[in-house]
Amino acid sequence: MKSHIGLAEWAMLLEKKEVSSVEAVNYFVERIEKNNVALNSFITVDADEARRAASVIDERRARGEALSTIAGIPFGVKDAINTAAMRSTGAAKILDNYTPTFDSSVIKKIRDAGGILIGKHNCDAFGHGASNENSMYGAARNPWDVSRVAGGSSGGSAASIAADLNAFAIGEDTGGSIRGPASFCGVSGLKVSYGRTSRYGAMPMASSLDTVGPFARSAEDIAMIMQHIAGHDPLDATTARATVPNYVAEIKKPIQGLKIGVPREFFMDELDTSIRMAVETTIKEFESLGAKIIPVSLPHTSYAVPTYYILVPCEDSSNLARLDGIRYGVRGAAEDLYHTYTASRESGFPAEVKRRIMIGTFALSHEHFDSFFVQAQKVRTIIKQEIEAVFNTVDVMITPTTPEVAFTVGDKSADPLKMYLSDIFLSSASLAGICALSIPCGLINGLPIGLQIMAPRLGEARALQCGHQFQQITSWHTQYPLL
Question: Tell me, which fold does domain 7-258 have in CATH?
Answer without folding.
Answer: Amidase signature (AS) enzymes (3.90.1300)
